């Protein structure tokens, strides 16, 4: 049983025309759209690394409609992990991992709720899978696994609310 709150307020009904038997948010498919792992200083980095690297994480959420007025969207969770360590009195890149993990969602909510559903609820569903992929790829690359801390997608969305559509992660959606 999930403790994730429903994207609809209590007592609210999906809009007319919503497909019967489909809830307000349906995850149709999820997939790795892009995955890159680089170790620019290999193999020397493995011989000289004496400490766990410092990892800088950048995260972005994007959403775009697949067809106008269809209620079907691609939501992408983009994660970049840059790891550096102090080697020979200089910061050296240990690895760079980039992941774009996506889901195709059908959303049946009132128009004013579409943006928070796409930029909060959808990435919340995708996050555990992206977290696992990033941990596996860094571990399999010869480094300690990068374990992403839980992300507050509500705070992330709210911090970006003041910008235009491109900065809020909504592409092609008004």
Secondary-structure map:
Elements: E1 25-38, H1 44-48, E2 54-65, E3 72-87, E4 90-107, H2 111-140, H3 153-160
Antiparallel strand pairs: 1-4, 2-3, 3-4
Helix pairs in contact: 2-3
What can you see in these coordinates?
This protein has 174 residues and is α+β, with helices and mostly antiparallel strands. It has one domain (25-160): Bacterial Protein-export protein SecB (Roll). The chain contains three helices and four strands. It has helices at residues 44-48, 111-140, 153-160; strands spanning 25-38, 54-65, 72-87, 90-107. The chain has a four-stranded antiparallel beta sheet. Helix 2 packs across helix 3 (153-160). The two termini are 33 Å apart. The relative contact order is 0.21. Mean pLDDT is 83; it is low at 1-21 and 164-174.
N-to-C span: 33 Å
| Alpha-beta content class | alpha+beta
Q: What Rg do the Cα atoms give?
A: 19 Å
* The top level CATH class name: Alpha Beta
Any descriptors?
174 residues; 4-stranded antiparallel β-sheet; 4 strands; 25% helix; disordered N terminus
Compact description:
It is built from 3 helices and 4 strands; from the N terminus they run βαβββαα. It is of the alpha+beta class and 174 residues long. It has a single domain (25-160), classed as Bacterial Protein-export protein SecB, CATH 3.10.420.10.
